[in-house]
From TrEMBL:
Gene expressing this chain: alaS
Domain-related comment: Consists of three domains; the N-terminal catalytic domain, the editing domain and the C-terminal C-Ala domain. The editing domain removes incorrectly charged amino acids, while the C-Ala domain, along with tRNA(Ala), serves as a bridge to cooperatively bring together the editing and aminoacylation centers thus stimulating deacylation of misacylated tRNAs.
All copies of domain Alanyl-transfer RNA synthetases family profile, residue ranges: 1-476
Entry protein name: Alanine--tRNA ligase
Location of the protein in the cell: Cytoplasm
Length: 476
């Protein structure tokens, strides 16, 4: 079953059951806590908190998501894309746990000929919050699941909140057993590659107060209007239904992987390290395409930085695989052709997208060789002096002069067994930002032109917190 078919079956299933279909929001979100939409519920937050009355009691969507927290997982696990599509059904004070479970079970297990996904019910496992005996009973009753395939989990995995006071509640995840070829027996607690999560159901039933972390806050009581928020990964379902080993090999990504393999003369499946690189290329090229389509431009901070990192890491990966010439002109159109049917904007604005992407590749190519030499020399020096970490000033120079995103420097240094003094790097970045602000202020008081917007632009581009792009992890 093609990914496009998985998408339309989801929307059809829920539309036929009283849900209003809502188009995907763009990836860059006005939500101040996030760089990008990272779950289907993000555009619906005001309805879930009750801040704004929901226009419909039930909604369904397939939302474009980018999860920067998962970038490092790409190509290494079988199931994490930096871009992915989350299909969801939502109830705003309408149906609750029993119907949410029944709806998910029905779509998952209804035979393909009758409009469902046709998963084998005997291979589905679920997790529930250990206190949620109601969910356990419902899985037993509605789905006929035996207790052995209903796994209790704690707050860390199966309790959802927005990270701030407001609605919260237990969640329940659906997993599919892909069989012994993928890992050991024992269920999702033992192996999440063999037992792959494909759908997450959140039961918003309580209200939480101030506090931090996954459980460091009081539960104030039950919500007057309970909500349902679910998220199913289209790529994960495609991995299952297309019987692929991982989500980089499904119909919407594999052709990019193949194009990269052909370009570089690499045979996919012959070398584990090269395979990871090919999967990274397939993933990053698609993510970059979708970000460019939504108006993000490559820059040194915030959203633009994530895009720059995608493009530059893809370019470097192709180069490491042995292809020295510009690669994006051979890869980006392949991704466009795969994504354009679901997202016509990708085809419509492709001339602009291509121009931006190819210019970024050219700019990187101009400094990559030199920067690599600088890095290699610096690493050799660190080693010769018996050190373990590249000085922050070196990483800053690579960033400032050679356009090396810090993550790239980290990755390249790590490949040679050396760390990077990140604190030193961050301090230098902060100095530079402060100087830019002071300059802007000086220019403003000197009265030469209106630069009053500059500090605001700098502020809006956000702090440079490499590992904390998503200060708030929203789980679907
Ligand atoms: P995992 O535990 O596998 O990392 P998750 O619990 O973080 O997944 P949720 O936040 O529950 O994921 O998101 C809802 C659904 O979206 C998941 O059940 C999965 O199908 C899909 N999904 C989440 N992250 C990714 C990703 N990086 N790539 C592809 N699909 C994803
Ligand atoms: Mg995750
Ligand atoms: Mg999970
Ligand atoms: Mg989950």
């Amino acid at each position: 079953m093609r990914t496009a078919d998985i998408r339309s079956r989801f929307l059809d299933h829920f539309t036929a059951r009283g849900h209003t279909p809502v188009p995907s929001a763009p990836l860059p979100t006005p939500d101040p806590t996030l760089l990008f939409v990272n779950a289907g519920m993000v555009p619906f937050k005001p309805y879930l908190t009750g801040e704004v009355p929901a226009p419909w009691p039930r909604a369904t969507s397939v939302q474009k998501c980018v999860r920067t927290l998962d970038i490092e997982e790409v190509g290494r696990t079988t199931r994490h894309g930096s871009f992915f599509q989350m299909a969801g059904n939502f109830s705003f004070g309408d149906y609750f746990k029993e119907e949410a479970i029944a709806l998910a079970w029905e779509l998952s297990t209804t035979p393909v000929a009758d409009g469902g996904y046709g998963l084998d019910p005997a291979r589905i496992w679920v997790t529930v919050h250990h206190t949620d005996t109601e969910a356990r009973a419902l899985w037993r009753r509605t789905a006929g699941l035996p207790d052995a395939r209903i796994v209790d989990r704690g707050d860390e995995d199966n309790f959802w909140s927005m990270g701030v006071p407001g609605p919260c509640g237990p969640s329940s995840e659906l997993y599919y057993d892909r069989g012994p070829a993928f890992g050991p027996e024992g269920g999702p607690a033992v192996d999440e590659d063999r037992f792959m999560e494909f759908w997450n159901l959140v039961f918003m039933q309580d209200e939480r107060g101030e506090g931090h972390g996954k459980s460091g806050y009081p539960i104030l009581g039950e919500l007057p209007h309970r909500n349902i928020d679910t998220g199913l990964g289209l790529e994960r379902m495609a991995t299952l239904l297309q019987d692929k080993p991982n989500l980089y090999e499904i119909d919407e990504t594999r052709p990019v992987l193949d194009a990269a393999a052909e370009l570089t003369g690499t045979r996919y499946g012959s070398d584990a390290a090269a395979d990871v690189r090919l999967r990274v290329v397939a993933d990053h090229v698609r993510t970059a395409l979708m970000l460019l389509a939504d108006g993000v431009s490559p820059t040194n901070e915030g959203r633009g930085y994530v895009l720059r990192r995608m493009l530059r890491r893809a370019v470097r990966s192709v180069r490491q695989l042995g292809y020295p010439d510009p690669a994006l002109p051979a890869l980006l159109p392949v991704a466009r052709d795969l994504m354009a049917c679901g997202y016509p904007e990708v085809a419509e604005s492709f001339p602009r997208i291509a121009e931006q992407a190819y210019a970024e590749e050219e700019a990187f190519r101009a400094t990559l060789q030199q920067g690599t030499t600088v890095l290699d020399t610096a690493v050799a020096k660190v080693r010769a002096e018996g050190g373990t970490a590249l000085p922050g000033a070196q990483a800053f120079q690579l960033h400032d002069t050679y356009g090396f995103p810090i993550d790239l420097t980290l990755e390249m240094a790590a490949e040679q067994g050396v760390e990077v003094d990140r604190a030193g790097f961050t301090a230098l970045m902060e100095d530079q930002r402060e100087r830019a602000r002071a300059d802007a202020r000086a220019r403003k008081s000197g009265g030469t032109g209106d630069t009053s917007a500059l500090p605001a632009v700098l502020d809006a581009s956000g702090p440079t917190e490499w590992l904390a792009w998503e200060k708030l992890t929203t789980r679907a």
